[in-house]
Amino acid sequence: LIPSIHYFITDSWSIGTGIGLEHTKILTRPGDEDKDTPDLYDKTNYFVLNPSAFYYLKLSEKFYYTPNIYLKLKLGKTKADKTKKKVNETNRNAVNIGVTLLNFEFRPIEQLGLGISCGDVCYVYEMNKNNPSKDESSIKNKTSTFHFSLQDTFSFAFRYYF
Fold this sequence. Notes:
It is a single chain. The chain is mainly β and about 160 residues long. It is about 0% helix and about 70% strand.
């Protein structure tokens, strides 16, 4: 959930930023009811700052093509269940720079926009550092990745225009 505010600098361009939270929860090992073992998860929470710029191309009276460019700064932690009682924590920071190519908006009335996006091209730089227990050493790693995706980045937006 990342609410944002934008300002139109021309009839076709808007710039702004969003601030919010991002949460993911991934099942890493299903539990077994016969052996009384619980489901184990990796849970990641980020605080996100997301400046962006949108371009508005009017396709019809109420339909727009709205690609955008963005920078996403993410600070957070991952808690990985190892057993029912043991959890590993990792500090995570990431920078995403990208373009949302397949982004469209429908405006049923002048002040309300309903958006959908499903295509993303981005570069991600991630820095991770685990929080070890007393008998473990700290591990740091950095990764760089490039993503081009069409199906795993669906998002919906509700926009109100003043």
